[in-house]
Specification:
The chain is mostly beta strands. It is built from two helices and 15 strands. It has one domain: Jelly Rolls (Sandwich), CATH 2.60.120.10. The structure holds 6-O-phosphono-alpha-D-mannopyranose and zinc ion.
């Protein structure tokens, strides 16, 4: 059987398979998909995330730090399924610390994830269960495998929006508490115009 796929048209699909049509712009990471989910995080929602609380208090809490969009081809919590999404982090700093995602570990801890950078420059900060922290440079084309049990966060170290695509298991979930309590063990700060990865005590 020949299967012809042309975004929106599948010929010969089995009638018991729900036709899931989606399209990615591989240059920007933008996504078209059925029932696309979106969310945005503003500075006001990221109080404990940045270390310079004084600078954070002087900034507009309505400032959008990052947006996320994702497709759930199966319901959240489904074992064996996958989600696909993208994230755009604005350029900026709170004090000397770059704008970044909240960061999380997966609620089902052994679930892994892929991140792939499409636009901009950044750092993926990772921390394993033993407390070791490290970072991987993100730039267009860089592909990052995040093993299970490893907490992860993305930092925009450039002066344009940083965009990356992501693929993660539909039952992975997000554990934000662990990052709120323990942090990532490292921060990425601007020192003399350069992005510097610095270990912290937490
Ligand atoms: C990526 C994925 C999402 C995640 C998003 C923002 O797109 O890992 O699952 O929600 O980044 O990260 P956070 O949830 O830490 O705010
Ligand atoms: Zn994740």
């Amino acid at each position: 059987m020949v299967l012809l796929i042309d975004f929106g048209t599948i010929v010969g699909y089995p009638t018991d398979v729900h036709p899931n049509f989606a399209a990615v712009d591989w240059v920007t990471g933008s996504l078209q998909a059925p029932n696309l989910h979106t969310s945005e995080k503003k500075l006001g929602q990221l109080r404990t995330v940045f270390h310079d609380q004084r600078s954070w208090e002087t900034m507009d809490p309505e400032t959008v730090v990052y947006r996320v969009w994702w497709w759930e081809p199966v319901p959240a919590g489904t074992e064996g399924g996958l989600f696909w999404g993208g994230t755009e982090i604005q350029p900026g700093c709170v004090g000397d610390e770059y704008f970044m995602t909240h960061g999380h570990r997966h609620a089902i801890v052994n679930r892994a994830e892929f991140y792939g950078t499409t636009v901009g420059q950044g750092m993926l900060v990772l921390r394993d269960e033993s407390g070791r922290a490290w970072a991987e440079k993100m730039k267009p084309g860089s592909l990052h495998y995040i093993p299970g049990r490893v907490a992860h966060r993305v930092v925009n170290t450039g002066n344009i929006p940083l965009r990356f695509v992501a693929c993660w298991p539909s039952d992975a979930g997000h554990d934000y508490e662990i990052v709120r309590e323990r942090g990532l063990g490292a921060r990425v700060c601007q020192r003399d115009g350069q992005a510097v990865f610095e270990m912290t005590q937490d």
